[in-house]
Amino acid sequence: MNQSLTTSNRPPYGILTIMMIGAFISFLNNTLLNIALPSIMADLKVEASTVQWLTTGYMLVNGVLIPTTAFLIQKYSVRRLFISAIALFTIGTVLAGFAHVFPMLLAGRMIQASGSAIMMPLLMNVMLVAFPIEKRGAAMGVFGLILMFAPAIGPTLSGWIIEHYDWRMLFHFITPIAVVVLLLGIFLLKDKKEKVDMTMDFLSLILSSVGFGGILYGFSSAGKKGWDSPYVYGTIAIGVIALVVLIMRQSKIERPFLHFGIFKYPMFALSSTITMVVNMAMFSGMLLLPIYVQDLRGISPMDAGLMMLPGAILMAFMSPITGKLFDKFGGRILAIIGLTITCVTTYYFSKLTFETTYTHLIILYSVRMFGMSMVMMPVSTNGLNQLPAKYYPDGTAMNNTLNQVAGAVGTALLVTIMSNRAASAAVDLAAEAKKKLTAPPSEEAIAAMEKQIEASAMLEGINFTFVVATFIIAVAIVLSFFIKRATPAEDKMNNKPEENKVVPKLAEN
């Protein structure tokens, strides 16, 4: 029995299942290495500034390649792109799993990223085309389950593997799954796409790579090198200039590399803005909590990962429910409720102390994840719903690219705020401690005092950064009141209704 990937027929659930498994392991890979970084540093004898390239390099490859997916999705079939993506991911996983020097590990990681960058926009575009608008929320809810649940369980799984096996096992256990998904894709996906005569505008590709890559590199380096470093402001400036030139070029060529004109659709522009703001604030929990629980409280990596597991399970449970609620009530009410919950819980995270209980952290983090589950996918789906179908690849590519940039910007800002606040707090605490001294302290007392001041200053920095994140989320709450239920609009870029659209087709036996 053949199934076409169109909204007029029954969606090909078998094919979507294969693609979702592939997307799951690629998303899982995003956070799997975080807890393993200290082990990799010790084993491969590299510094923290070097090992961070496993994360920064991954982000850079995504930032460079994701903008190309709009062209790739329109040019090539789903089958060809999916097989290419999962093959690249598998090759990178195998290479990283057998790495005994850091350059080999980094190369494997970046090859993984090249496959993962294609996977997410491809799957999102397939789901947009496969389901009618009235059922799209439920479908995207299942997609949201994968998108949020996979990275969330990464720290827990990674912590368990690191405690029992070598860090290379993180890659070895993914390899057989990736191989099975690759074989299923080769034998089950059938190509029905009509040949499309399109050519890549390589100047736009270069401008996009320099633009997004420069901004991502600059902001991701700011927390480590400082904002006054020429590597930071220089690369950001180059990136901004390249993006300005890219946008100007896209408005002049017949077939744009990336349709910036889709921001003429108000609900898409609003949803992109909200998700960018939320992404910036979301990293406060992902970035600051591991520092607090491991460095300040001495909680083991395994227990730190387990702390986040209930929230991940709750989010997984809620995503399909949220999708159905979106189909029924629209995105505004869900966004307002979800962002309010996220805002309140983020504020309470600014009240952390050295006595905050483990149970309190689990409950607060779980409620925060409950709020987040009601925001990202409903808001994104509502924005994409307003686009004509032929602009879905451009919309998904633009959303994913901007989310990468927002994540890098948010991480850099939060790290800088935390570091600066901790440094100023350390000076104040040291001055206060000196005033209380009645006699010259011993060397042991000085060492203990310095350690206590450092920990207290770091806690102050973390709490203050959560306050800043609270205000960032408050901005998103205000914006969410302007959300309206979106329906496919006319093609504003060509000033005519959408007609004779080319819909990609896919079949399964």
UniProtKB/TrEMBL annotation:
The chain crosses the membrane at residues 12-33, 53-73, 85-105, 111-131, 138-157, 169-189, 201-219, 231-248, 268-292, 304-321, 333-350, 362-380, 401-419, 464-483. The keyword Transmembrane applies. This is DHA2 family efflux MFS transporter permease subunit. GO terms for cellular component: plasma membrane. Belongs to the major facilitator superfamily. EmrB family. Residues 15-488 form the Major facilitator superfamily (MFS) profile domain. It is a multi-pass membrane protein. One of its GO terms (molecular function) is transmembrane transporter activity.
